[in-house]
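Note to self: the last two entries modelled the partners one at a time, which told us nothing about the interface. This time every component goes in together.
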Amino acid sequence: MKEFHRPEALYSTFPRKGGADPEATHYCPGCGHGIIHKLLGEVIDELGVGERTVLISPVGCSVFAYYYFNAGNIQAAHGRAPAVATGVKRARPDSIVISYQGDGDLAAIGGNNILQAANRGENMTVVFVNNAIYGMTGGQLAPTSPLGMKTTTTPEGREFEEYGSPMRVAELLAPLDGVSLSSRHALINAGEIIKTKKALKKAIKYQMEGKGFSLVEILSQCPTGWKVDPVESLHWVEEHMLKVFPLGTYKDEPRQRPTPPHPADYEPALIDRVIHAGTSANGRGKAHEPVRPVTLPLGIRAAGFGGQGILLLGEMLAKAGLAEGLSVTWLPSYGPEMRGGTANCSVVISDTPVGNPIVDQPNLLLALNRPSLERFEPMMQPGGVVIYDSSLIDVGPTRSDLTAIAIPATKIADELGTAKVANVVMLGACMELLAFPSQSERDPLLQSISRDEKMLEANRLALKGGMEAARAAAAPAR
Amino acid sequence: MSNSHHRRFNVEFHEDLCKGCGLCVHMCPHHVLVQSERLNRRGFHPAEYVGEGCTGCGICFHTCPEPSGIDVEPHSPTSA
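The predicted structure of the combined assembly is written out below.
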């Protein structure tokens, strides 16, 4: 005796959806998505893969699939679900990856994505919900709209001469060598609904067995977009869609797929560090040691007036990191607001590859004028370090969670005969605090600025002056 | 079939989730579901079970687009 209850793979309430009815879906009355969600949920339950399923949501009405499925979920950019699914499956071969896409998403903007994923024979399952229209945006023509169909963008009906014929995706993909299963189903009656469920189950089983790419196309009713009531929408499918999109299996040739030649070799924590190298303090190393008060990865912002050598300072810091055998990026900011005003750059120094060169939340700020300090102080990570030119900035940072190090850089430089080397004084202060690069690496760094003997000597003295000043500034904290 | 056979299963509607689409009523092979004259909290005419004739086929469950809209289970004297 069988009972029928909500599958475990679907949540009982939808707190992420919120609103007045967190137990009801956002779908319109009679929408096929709800039916397909339920079928997919049952299949996930029956195959016992809920714990390792990752659903890739598209753009379209089912963009919110993550409200409903008790599974992993990534919401992809429009049409890019197969690419995201590829990444997930290759990185996590044990996961069950389901790309859930509508016809606007899959057949229009994502046309190339689905072709390439199918052609590569990615071991994934694509659920293609074809309702012949753009539902979410108000009923525009889709690649799958039948000839003659009136939509908001074809008020006189789709004409071949202007828009071509409806695209038959199941037939289109079937001949590709990478495709194991390609079939089309509908929700028009109980028998077809059960066939749809069986196809979904077969597709996911193929994936579990490493048998490659499956596409299950489902003709799904959109009563709102078609401007008919839900029961009429079933007749609409029969009348307008079945002729154009015959139901059936276009290919069923499961083949064992070889493992991709370059199996993913990574730890999720590494990805996190790479992406957030410039924005988070999750690096290793001891925080707030006097000589190295900031931890790797370092997200540095150097800022000051144009002409103070800010970009060069950032570049030298990056080179110092390179000399230490670390990964670095240097990104100058050329925003229009910089004209005649302030200059700044982002530097990331990390012991892992750097994925994001933009430093939104610095943990080290080098401020060479007051506007720079005022602009970047609020962005600092808690516990960050601010090195500021105290000869130009009379009031240091106000946040109590930051370590402030006052270096009279311009004054030191001026005493050496040229205020131009204030940036090298700051560089010296940084090197002292970071404890790199080693002594032998410092001179080659300065020589890369200038080989002119007089200039090189000034830079050597400036570097030394900055290091001494930093040591003096850090001393009281001990 | 005896009357007792017809009462072996029960269709339980979660009325406030029903959007009144009528697909379950349309697809029920035994014609034992109807759309109520009443309005639910959300302003729809919810589907309801006439009280007997359900064979537990589950078609209404599968046609209902709401995940928790319908339960089909063996009839027990305590269920409605």
